[in-house]
Structures are given as C-alpha cells and as structure tokens.
Design goal:
about 525 residues; alpha+beta; 4-stranded antiparallel sheet; 20 strands
C-alpha cells in the first residue's frame, strides 16, 4: 500500500453522527507522541527468519513498526510528521500551523507504518470539527482506532492538541497587503520573502507587436509594456553559462520558441548546443503513461489532432527568489531520482546536479544587492468548484436571513470567453439538430469557448499569484501533482499607499516563490 493510498484513510466526514462544518482560518496542531502501537512488521520478521534459516546471515534484532502521522481535513493531507524507525512508542513533538478553508466533519490524524514497499495503516483519531468551532484548544490522549472502530492494539493511544482560529480572528488578514518595510510576507511558506528582485509578467507566450492588445495606463502616466515570453526564454538559455534546468508536464524538443527573425534553432538543438558548451542541462518531465515509450513505440492516446489554442500567464524571476526556484528544482530532482521499493537496498550515487556553492555568481546572491527602497516599481514579493463556492455563499446568506433578498450571483459570478463564428453555409451543415445535444446548441448559437489555461489570481489589484496548480483536489491535495507558484506585490502600489486601484508596471519587483507543499495550504 502506498503512503497516500485512499484505502488507508479513515475520514470521519462520512460518519452520519458528525456534521460537516466550514473550517476557514488556521489549525494550530501539536502531535506529541503515541504509545503501545502494534508491530506491523511481523510478516517482514517472519519472512526474514525464513531467509536467515536458509542462509548463513547473522541474526539481528527483529524490526517493528516505523510510525508516522498524517493530518487529513476533508480527505486532503495538510500535514505529516517524520518517520520514527522501529518504535512502538514514538515521540514526534512536531508543531504545525495549517491554513484551512475546508468543509469537513472532522480533523483526522492517521497513523501509518512506513515500509520499504509502501505504508500500512495502523489506525486513526478523529477530532469532530464541531468541537473546534469555539476556538478553544482541544487536547488529550485518544485511542488509535481501526476503520471498524476497534482499537488497533490494547492501549494504543495518540497524544495531540489542536486549536482552530477562525479567519475573522487572524488580524494579519484585516488590512490587506501590509505596506510597511518589516512585513515578513505570507506566513509559514516554504521559502522566505525575498526583497529587491525583479518579476516580469507575461500574457501568453507570444504577444504580437501590432497593437492587438488594449493599452493599459499605469499610475505614473505611461502605458504598460507587454513582454515577449518566448523571446526572453530563448535569450536566457542562449546566454546561460552554468546550468539550464527545465521542468514541465512535457518537453517538445522540436518546437521553435522564436519563429520570427533569424533565431530559427529548435529547443532541442539549442539545448544540445549549450550542453556541448559545458552548460549542465537537466529536464524533469512528468512521467505520464500516455507519453511513455514502450518497447520503442511511443504511446499516444489522444488522437483528436491539435488541441485548441490556450491563453496562459507566465512570469520570469530575476534576483534572490530565483535561487528558491533553483532549490525547489533540486529537491524535486533528488526525490524523482530517489530509489524506491527493492532499489532502496542498492547503493545510489547521484552527482547530476551541479554544486551550486561552487558557482560564485549564484552563491553570492543577496537580497540587499537587489533592494532599492527608492524604486517605486519594487515588489515585495471546474463545475464542482463553482458549485461549492455558490453553496458557501448561499449558506452565509441563510445564516444572516438574507436568502430571500439576495442571490449568490449577487456576490460571485463566473464568465467564459467565447468566439462567435461565421454562419454555416448549406454545404457545411451537419444535418439533424437536437436541442439536448450541447454540440448542436453550440453550432446553433455559433458561440464556442475560448479555453483560458492560465493559473493566476489578482487580489484587490495589489497582490498577484501565478503558478501551475489548478483549483481542484488533484493540485491542492499536496500529495499528488507537483506544483509551484510565485506570489508578489509592490509596496508603492497598494491600496494603503495609493488610496485607489494600484496600477504599477509588472516588472522590476522583489518576489516570493511558494512550492507545492505550501501552495495547497495557502
């Protein structure tokens, strides 16, 4: 069983005796210790004894459970302790401060045994969400129960404490982005706030220079300058001296990033050229069964032809925060190259990554070098989802007695861009029409969706976050897809300073980068 196998979870939200409530705020969690946990390695010890009886291997102490605890809210893993080897009475004493916006019946503490070939469920403790709503700290020693409700072992207990702090009591959210120079940034993120760097934001990878996009007037009276993402990516790789690290869902090496002017080299040719020059080139690509090569045959399951053009958002980070992106890549690379299963038993040596400390221009990066307080542009840096958001607003209206006066749509609306296509000529008509067929309805109205693939959010015109995550369980769970995001703001362009909608050029700003482990909690 894998550590995140859903069969190993016990979610009390399915229990009929517990009522699901919205937990919107923070959970202050302390996992102290467990006592009298069962030995889940009995089978391993038995097999080991059989192997030793057939060999001359020396006898050693029998192993026992290697326990750890995961914290689940509405089936989402929001925290996890470290593993303690061979201990039926483990002591973690680990503290977690977890931002939450989940509707759940309970906060579940799941105890598991880590093994070479995965993890095995030991038991769980469920703290009802209703008992947390008062804001008082809930603490004690709780029996560790199996899914059938019985103790996992005689006397098996978990000592913990948890306190829920509603968002209304979190003063850090009361005044928007803090304009002061001592603002520490978004709390409890993986990487710290970086000051004085530069962020360049892009709308789509290539923006034509023919004035097709509307002019945006900035606060200083000038017009916003649209960037050329693919040009900048190509130039950055062409000028690389030490390393080029690329990560993504897929890498199409025959593509030409720049298709105008004299820059006609494909991505693959450019990377090969830089590799021959001594630049370390590493590609960390998603391992997707639909894109693997099996016995020399490329497996492709989507035969519908080219996908529709998508609109995207991109960002470029220069300065200290770029080092955080580099460290995140290194961590993901080491995890992806980590041996699993039986391969754990063999020696591994990974010297692929460059020793960053030996590259002076990277190792010497300092926030202060890039910081300039006098720079006014400086930054400190799908249907179910919509239904859930509308339901939350409707319940709030009900609680206030306003459900007869207002509708959720008075507070929240979703809009979809569309193209109105030319009418079909008689020769291009497809025949019969069905009112129940969405495709026929689209042809009748001649309106088709423009797919916006961007993962970005602008809050109060002053804070921007751009990243890879979708707003769904797969991206936000924290134990599935790898996600990373960049969040930034300009101190001189906040509501507190401007007393109006901020309008700053989206370049030359300090940044903060947030990895997937924090993104799902933010």
């Amino acid at each position: 069983m894998s550590p995140d196998d859903e069969d190993g979870r016990t979610d009390a939200s399915s229990a009929p005796s517990l009522r699901a409530v919205l937990l919107h705020g923070s959970l202050d969690i302390l996992i102290h210790e467990a006592r009298n946990l069962p030995n889940k390695d009995i089978l391993s010890n038995t097999m080991g004894g059989l192997l030793k009886s057939c060999t001359s291997a020396p006898e050693g102490a029998a192993s026992t459970s290697d326990p750890y605890v995961t914290v689940l809210v509405a089936s989402a893993t929001v925290a996890r302790t470290y593993v303690i080897q061979d201990d039926e009475n483990p002591r973690w004493a680990q503290h977690f401060l977890v931002p939450v916006a989940h509707e759940a019946a309970a906060v579940n503490f799941v105890v598991k045994d880590s093994d070479v070939f995965g993890a095995e469920l030991i038991g769980s403790v469920a703290i009802p969400s209703e008992s947390l709503q008062s804001g008082d700290r809930v603490e004690g020693v709780y029996p560790v129960l199996e899914p059938n409700g019985k103790p996992c072992a005689p006397g098996a207990v978990l000592r913990l404490s948890v306190q829920y702090v509603p968002v209304a009591r979190l003063t850090m959210y009361h005044h928007g982005v803090t304009p002061g120079p001592d603002f520490p940034g978004v709390p409890n993120t993986y990487f710290p706030l970086r000051r004085g760097g530069r962020v360049t934001l892009y709308q789509d990878a290539h923006v034509p220079a023919d004035g097709c996009l509307p002019e945006i007037r900035l606060g200083n009276g000038t017009n916003y300058r649209h960037g050329q993402c693919w040009h900048d990516v190509y130039d950055a790789m062409s000028q690389a001296r030490s390393l080029i690290y690329i990560t993504g869902w897929s890498v199409f090496h025959t593509i030409h990033l720049v298709r105008d002017g004299d820059k006609g080299r494909s991505l693959g040719d450019l990377l090969k050229k830089k590799s021959k020059e001594g630049v370390r080139v590493l590609l960390l690509v998603w391992d997707d069964p639909t894109s693997r090569s099996v016995l020399g045959i490329q497996m492709v399951t989507d035969d519908r032809g080219p996908r529709e053009p998508w609109h995207d958002l991109h960002s470029k980070i220069d300065g200290p925060a770029a080092f955080d992106v580099l460290k995140n890549f290194e961590e993901r690379w080491l995890k992806a190259s980590k041996r699993t299963g039986a391969k754990k038993l063999t020696k591994s040596c990974n010297d692929t990554l460059l020793w960053i400390e030996k590259i002076p221009e990277i190792a010497a990066i300092d926030d202060e070098i890039y910081s300039s307080d006098s720079d006014p542009e400086r930054w400190d840096i799908q249907k179910k989802t919509m239904q859930m958001m509308y339901e939350i607003i409707y319940r709030a209206l009900q609680e206030m007695g306003l459900d007869g006066k207002y509708e959720p749509q008075d507070y929240l609306n979703f809009f979809c861009l569309g193209n109105r296509e030319a009418e079909e000529t008689p020769n291009t008509s497809t025949g019969s029409f069905s009112a129940s067929n969405p495709q026929d309805q689209s042809r009748k109205n001649r309106r088709f969706m423009v797919y916006v693939h961007s993962k970005g959010m602008i809050v109060d015109d002053e804070y921007v976050i751009i990243g890879s995550a979708n707003i769904n369980q797969r991206s936000m769970e924290g134990t599935r897809d790898t996600e990373i995001a960049m969040g930034a703001y300009q101190p001189h362009y906040t509501w507190a300073n401007m007393l109006s909608a901020p309008r700053g050029q989206a370049t030359n700003q300090p940044t903060k980068s947030i990895p997937e482990s924090q993104l799902q909690k933010s």
